[in-house]
Amino acid sequence: xxxxxxxxxxxxxxxxxxxxxxxxxxxxxxxxxxxxxxxxxxxxxxxxxxxxxxxxxxxxxxxxxxxxxxxxxxxxxxxxxxxxxxxxxxxxxxxxxxxxxxxxxxxxxxxxxxxxxxxxxxxxxxxxxxxxxxxxxxxxxxxxxxxxxxxxxxxxxxxxxxxxxxxxxxxxxxxxxxxxxxxxxxxxxxxxxxxxxxxxxxxxxxxxxxxxxxxxxxxxxxxxxxxxxxxxxxxxxxxxxxxxxxxxxxxxxxxxxxxxxxxxxxxxxxxxxxxxxxxxxxxxxxxxxxxxxxxxxxxxxxxxxxxxxxxxxxxxx
Length: 317
Fold this sequence. Notes:
- The strands form 5 sheets. A 7-stranded mixed β-sheet has the order 3-4-5-15-7-17-6, with helices on one face. Strands 14-8-16 form a 3-stranded antiparallel β-sheet.
- It is an alpha+beta fold.
- It has helices at residues 34-41, 72-85, 97-105, 174-179, 183-189, 199-202, 208-217, 252-263, and strands spanning 18-19, 26-27, 49-52, 59-62, 87-90, 125-130, 152-161, 169-173, 193-196, 221-224, 226-228, 235-237, 244-247, 272-275, 282-286, 290-294, 303-311.
- The chain has 8 helices and 17 strands.
- It has a single domain, classed as Clavaminate synthase-like (Double-stranded beta-helix).
- It is globular, with a radius of gyration of 21 Å.
């Protein structure tokens, strides 16, 4: 048997990703995440501790009790941490529905979701109660409610009951996803808009009269494929298969192929962080900077979560 290798085959090559021949798959070091990973590692906070848990996103926050009315200075610093880490995790926070809503409201006006019931005395809470009779369909990468003219700025999700194994939520950094694109793709999508429509996800549950009524209240809306974050000023991808139906100016097939290609950037584990839930864990994510995916691997076990979402500005270039 002939052996020609006397060193690592990557030795001597500039670290970069390369496309696997014949497939839309890339391999190699994700060098574009290094600067953000190292920047986050240097952050420190006055009112709490933060443990970085992902390369470019995710921090577990300790030293904060969300069940109490927090001082304004803590809220200001938590808001800053949200913009830095993109998603924050809190453990052992036994929130009542009232305290959940009160905490989320410190960050802005709360949404009431027209298609998912609250099942509590707090209409601002969306309740996801899964069991043997009710399956989870949130296992597709998405930003929440992009079919709204003003989608969520962020969301606070509280775990009430979780299965012993499974039901994790994954988050993907859409700044890093944009940074991963080649220059030709960035130039191609810079001025394109996707049309987002609630019908794609919720149309099947409505009769004709309900569909007509909700269409009048929530017409399809166009958002840029590439947005500039209203606070950080950074560019991020803003498109998902759940709600984005087509792209203005492209035929349907070409547009959906482009949507699918851009959405594949969330698939890379190098862009992700994964949360393993425990009862009374809370996740607070920036709905612009990240997409999320709730693993549906726990059926027929029970998983109960409640979410409060904060209205954001209209996405813009």
